[in-house]
Amino acid sequence: ALTIGIAGLPNVGKSTLFNALTRASVVAANYPFATIEPNVGVVPLPDKRLDRLAEVFGSERIVPATVSFVDIAGIVKGASEGEGLGNQFLANIREADAICQVTRAFQDADVVHVEGRVDPRDDIETISTELILADMQTLEKALPRLEKEVRGKKAEPEVLETAKGAMKVLEAGTLLSAGAQEAGLDPEILATFQLMTSKPFIYVFNTDDAGLADEAMQAELRELVAPAEAIFLDAKFESELVELEPDEAAEMLAETGQDEAGLDKLARVGFETLGLQTYLTAGPKEARAWTIHKGWTAPQAAGVIHTDFERGFIKAEVISFDDLVELGSVAEARSHGKVRMEGKDYVMQDGDVVEFRFNV
Ligand code: GDP
Known about the structure:
The chain is 44% helix and 19% strand.
């Protein structure tokens, strides 16, 4: 499964957030094939459509899609030079598919800030710099090799050009996730270099009541990290929220003027950032969301349920969720011509409710 690495400076609330994520983790019984590791939190992707589907089909249980978060050891200034936990940190970040950077935006004189003051802008700069320096080192090592390969016609000249272009972006102090497109770098070639700053980023600002209400501050930080997503939450509050029953939690959220829990927001944005989407299945036993990559075809999607489904794929019967809910049942949807027969080239759409037909 794809994972999101949680990273950030020490004392910004990473552990608090990660503990909340672990406590929000799905019951392992629903996911018999998931290996549960201590530094991985597997949280459900909130999806209200599953509740509606379970009503329509009288399903016994709901199985949401999940998002996996990995706790990454703290970064310090000088990580790119292998200082302290630096090497471990970089190794962990390399393994993650996206990076969620937690930044402190709460005031609390009792919690020491490593740099002696709370300044999200500066903290982001510190971490970006370490990752940029580490990527520059990687490229510096790769360039002589690539030059030799191109001279010996063992590699395409585009590969070398892309590496040089990436170096320019980094030298300008820009993360590749933010600057590669503008520089016209080929994403597929870029991916072969295994650089950290070309992974998608999400920024979590760990803030307090004052921060959650401060729209001007939020707008400023959103602009700073764009095109990456920014999420504002109170990690301490979130860790208390996950201890409550769902209706108590909803009440508590409403009292603080929030429409969605920060962890739910993080799961949603994380899932999206990983380039994933879901399709839905439903029956008397369960209403379930299945995870696929954006752009996958019907047979690929079927393969997520079982490899036999992909191999023996005949067709998919697809109803869009909105049509199904509006008409109230599969039979009604069918009589209104809203059940589509889709073949092996069909590209799955968000909200497809599917039944696969296959040969065994
Ligand atoms: P980490 O080093 O990034 O993992 O940070 P921790 O999660 O251990 O948090 C460092 C300290 O900050 C702890 O004492 C937490 O209780 C406190 N802390 C974390 N989040 C918040 C928050 O949202 N508000 C306040 N006031 N304190 C927090």
